[in-house]
Amino acid sequence: MFDLLLDLDGWLLVSLTVALAFVLAFEFINGFHDTANAVATVIYTKAMPPYLAVFASGVFNFLGVLLGGVGVAYAIVHLLPVELLIDVNTGRGLAMVFSLLAAAIVWNLGTWYFGIPASSSHTLIGSILGVGLANTLLTDVTVSEGVNWQKAMDIGISLLLSPLAGFLVAGAILLGLKLWKPRSSMHSSPPQRKEQIGKKHPPFWNRLILVLSAMGVSFVHGSNDGQKGIGLIMLVLIGIVPAHFALNLNSTAYEVERTRDAAVHLRDFYQRNSGSLADYLALGKSNGTDLPEKYRCDPKQTEITLEALMAALDGARVYAELPAQTRVDIRRYLLCLDDSARKVGKLESLPKAEKKDLDKLRKDLTGTTEYAPFWVVMAVALALGLGTMIGWKRVVLTVGEKIGKEGMTYAQGMSAQVTAAMAIGLANLYSLPVSTTHVLSSGVAGSMVANRSGLQGGTVGSILLAWVMTLPASMGLAAGLYLVANYLFINN
Fold first, then answer.
1. How far apart are CA 1 and CA 24, in angstroms?
2. Which residues have CB under 8 Å from 409's CB, separation 6+?
3. Which of 95, 201, 257, 297 is the most buried if burial means most Cβ atoms within 10 Å?
4. Using CB atoms within 10 A of its CB, is residue 441 exposed (0-12), middle (13-18) or buried (19+)?
């Protein structure tokens, strides 16, 4: 990393530093914005002292980022169209990064200031969609190609269903607890327990579950939301200094060989299925031209792209031995081949067994492009962990007292937290970004309804309004900033 800094000229160094600062600021804000939800119940129910709970949550967020992998990170990255990912130059990379991050930071700070449990995930995804759509106004890319709509739909379904699941599952768990032990003190709120027996802490087993589930929510939150920061930093690095980060330079000779083998097998796969794919991929109908100077992904150029990839990898043992521009070109070839393979996988004419083989080939093909250096993971982990340790009071009060008409009981806190930990953990397994805020808040609301405590219309209305408005507001803000930034960074 330090060798890279020494090689950059002054303008690029300043741009890279500011861009990385923006990403880490977003993750820092994400820490005290979203993670307040992870400790809201454990603080409100007096299961842990506030500062100890927040410190422990910060530690578990840190660990979650370190151990979470990069699946969610690249699910976020691939919301952008492949053309925008491969056709970046320094100016376009700066415009993309600064506009989507500035939009996300502004909206996050605004909702935090008013104590509204809005979603950083929604904000970030809206910002990315806004950039993708704004890019269609500046290029000949169509709206249908301006965003990876299939990935956007998958993520949208995840963001929509996870709060509904949180509401229903938390309510069901609470009803089960009430049927199991209807007279237990776990169905008391902290003020009620204080008034009844003079104790401010929950019963031992309830307290243990509240603490463990809160740390579980913090861990899975770190592994899910932290990956979003990792994905953003990789966008920064690839957009501003692509020669150094287009491919994983730490890839072993075996990993490079596996990439080469994946290309060979992909070529064989297309030949094997030429009967159904010949027209779509224009197999055997090369137009005799080279790849276009301004690269665009086109399934009909699959054969020539495969040939270009094989030529670039010919004789290469590790990527570090290749010229910088060759590494950038290899990344372009790999991403375009993956994009075409993704489209082929949706064709009804392709048998299901062949689609499974194609999915495996895609993973091998992009294995050396979807990565994150350890220092990136560590920086995001620190930013998220430190951000967790401040700014939590506003959201804790909202979750604890302002969602239901009565204060939260220990059983309600357990139900909401256990549900959130399970839901986010399950999303991590499938590399789907979800909102800790919405899952936990909906879990609290579900437990309030199941307990017949009622809901405060004003607070619930504010949360729903933020839920509805976050996506279009962040999209519009990011799109506007991208158009302005494009003019500043590219045209001047």
1. 17
2. 186, 187, 188, 189, 192, 451
3. 95
4. buried
